[in-house]
Amino acid sequence: MSTTDAAAFWDGVHAARPAAAPRPNARLAETVTGLPPGDALDLGCGIGGDALWLADQGWRVTATDISAVAVERLAALALAGGLGDRVAAVRHDLHRSLPPGGFDLICAHYLHTPFDLDRASVLRAAAHALRPGGRLLVVDDGSTAPWSWDQDPGVRYPGPEEVAGELGLDAATWTVERADSPTRTATGPDGRTAEVTDHVLLIRRGRPAAARRRRDTPPPRTGSGEAEVLRGFLDYLRTSIAAKVEGAAEPQARTARVPSGTNLLGLLNHLVSVERALFLGEDVTDWQATFQADPADGVADVVARYRAAVERANDVLDGCADLGAPIPGTRPGRPAPSVRWALTHMIEETGRHAGHVDILRELIDGTTGR
């Protein structure tokens, strides 16, 4: 069935429910109470009881659902409750992707659907979107409540250990902090109560052993000449940024971690274009497009292309004895900057993006150091 079918189904489910003030799920409240607020992602938010409660506790919440009815109701409730600046209600199809960004908490409560959804892939991607120290809370039905949309008597409810196993997460990085099946008395949307079982899985992301802090490489020792200093520091930054991108996992390396869409692999791909344009005279017609690597290129491909561009640029610079002279290879019809200006600009450009890359790589797997 299509995304349109799924959206129409869930629009109908939410439209049929009373427009009462939503309540947070009990397992969320007992898990999150006491944690320092940060950035949270609510997967399949429904009408938003969890998102509103989290925002009221000081969290910044991105709440997603495929249903426009649910998202519009949540946005209105957040605004009415003075929480509009803390809740971003977004209509999003998890079958395609997760919203961009890194998160301190991701929750998925009763994320079941009669439509095609690779739930394990969604939850695995969610685990990778956690910042170091962040938590993924998955709460599933362990029994059928009288008000559930799915009353199939033959439905099977996988336990939390089975769900954790399906995700295939590296135990060196992710720790299962809770996996149990408690019962509680629940109240449905129509006011009925029933004894229900919850399957609760709580996973915390730590820092993998392979991502321990690398010893910082100190600034280069260069000669006293201006050209030696400029080129020495430029090569220092080039080496550092390539090493920081190298070995990053896919697809996290090309996944946006901030709303602007900035991603690790895209930054290095952009620097390839800057090196080629500045030192080799290549024309770039769409600079914004350079911030996205070609889908066919992996991390190793872009790193190799960057190192090759740097080698060719250095070949050009080896022939530039006068820092005040125009940089060779400038495109016809455009004034040529001096070699000094080109080197200084490249140091500024590479250093700026090296800082971005430091943060993005730490968000991906905890790797730090230069």
From TrEMBL:
<dbReference type="InterPro" id="IPR041698">
    <property type="entry name" value="Methyltransf_25"/>
</dbReference>
<protein>
    <recommendedName>
        <fullName>Methyltransferase domain-containing protein</fullName>
    </recommendedName>
</protein>
<dbReference type="InterPro" id="IPR007061">
    <property type="entry name" value="MST-like"/>
</dbReference>
<dbReference type="InterPro" id="IPR029063">
    <property type="entry name" value="SAM-dependent_MTases_sf"/>
</dbReference>
<dbReference type="InterPro" id="IPR034660">
    <property type="entry name" value="DinB/YfiT-like"/>
</dbReference>
<feature type="region of interest" description="Disordered">
    <location>
        <begin position="207"/>
        <end position="226"/>
    </location>
</feature>
<dbReference type="InterPro" id="IPR050508">
    <property type="entry name" value="Methyltransf_Superfamily"/>
</dbReference>
<feature type="domain" description="Methyltransferase">
    <location>
        <begin position="41"/>
        <end position="134"/>
    </location>
</feature>
<dbReference type="Pfam" id="PF04978">
    <property type="entry name" value="MST"/>
</dbReference>
<dbReference type="Pfam" id="PF13649">
    <property type="entry name" value="Methyltransf_25"/>
</dbReference>
